[in-house]
Write a structure and sequence with these properties.
homodimer; three-stranded antiparallel β-sheet; 37% strand
């Protein structure tokens, strides 16, 4: 087993440190966030930090890092409020990752990488037609995380679109069945296989697998 | 395709809404966070929201929800500062999930579920011996996320332990090879398979897969 102290980590070459620390927290969600500028240019960017915040009202959050690419998204949803969150699937993983290239402000990543815009009535931001699970959200709040100058963005879910055959009776979306990917670090994409779901755990009671 | 509006979501039965919104953001990381109380009782709890914050200095963050179970962890790392983050693997997935049962304050989840405590010199919180990737962190800051009364906890990585054979030359930890699991929603555990890693994307240049 390799033991890195904080000092060992700080002394690593930049890229090695970045890959190590980006991967060590575990598998992350793989989403494309879609926005539109006030002049009507659509934008699409990979985010690996979307997490659930609460269900009543339905909200999610994600971390925005101080990079050029993500700032296009940021200025868009500050201006327009609406944004979409679209699951990345294996069938368009390379198109999705290509959105992380630094395109100019007046260029739409949709067209550049070959993904299809889709709009729903009364909602300004573009969805990714190819995604089987996608959400239309409105910007609610942001928190400056001063330690790394990140912003935690909080959004409320206004629309949730789910392809048929993915949702179980109790509401659970089987993301393995949906082929929704996960991300390792910055550049590793994984598919998933469901091991099991477990019933609510109680002290001194055997855990009940729900699928086996 | 099913289209849920915010109003449709709010009208769902509680459990269905909870499962739907907990799963819709994508696959999440699967970690056990270990702490110790001032009276020396160890504590272990599942967290599915650990994400990387920045690598220099190495920091991560996670969301603490206003529940009884997680509050044991919270009071511990407020008092002791040290906590550990340990990847959940398939070999001990049911033991890991069982830690989510509401045990009393004076009971250690390690002993109750059958996982093994491991300590390193100069660090107070317990590691999970069975984990192949684990971190010893210190509490740095917390941010109250008022929308759902959650707390975003920021920790600095002081120790990072990685089993041999997992890390690639450029620093990347292959979490699929490590058998680190992901979580869907609250109760679904998935294993992962690496599809590929991609080189840094640039406009008007074909994306280069690193593994194929």
């Amino acid at each position: 087993m390799t033991h890195y102290s904080k000092q060992d980590i700080l002394e690593l070459p930049n890229l090695q440190r970045m890959h190590l620390i980006n991967t060590c927290g575990g598998v992350k969600s793989a989403n494309l966030i879609g926005t539109i500028s006030k002049t009507g240019v659509t934008n699409l960017a990979v985010f690996n930090s979307v997490i659930h915040l609460g269900s009543n009202p339905p909200m999610l959050s994600f971390m925005l890092r101080p990079t050029t690419v993500e700032r296009h998204s940021y200025s868009n949803f500050i201006e327009k409020i609406d944004f979409t969150v679209n699951h990345i699937e294996e069938s368009f993983v390379s198109e999705a990752h290509q959105t992380s290239a630094k395109y100019d402000n007046d260029i739409s990543e949709f067209k550049e990488v070959g993904l299809t815009e889709e709009f729903i009535e009364g909602f300004e931001a573009p969805f990714v037609k190819e995604s089987k699970i996608k959400m239309g959200c409105t910007f609610v709040n942001e928190y400056l995380i001063k330690e790394h100058n990140c912003r935690l963005i909080v959004g409320e879910i206004q629309h949730l679109l789910v392809e048929n055959g993915i949702q179980e009776k109790d509401g659970f979306l089987d993301l393995a069945k949906a082929n929704s990917l996960g991300i390792i670090g910055l550049d590793g994409y994984v598919k998933t296989e469901l091991i099991d779901r477990y019933a609510y755990a109680r002290p001194n009671q055997d855990l009940k697998p729900l699928k086996r």
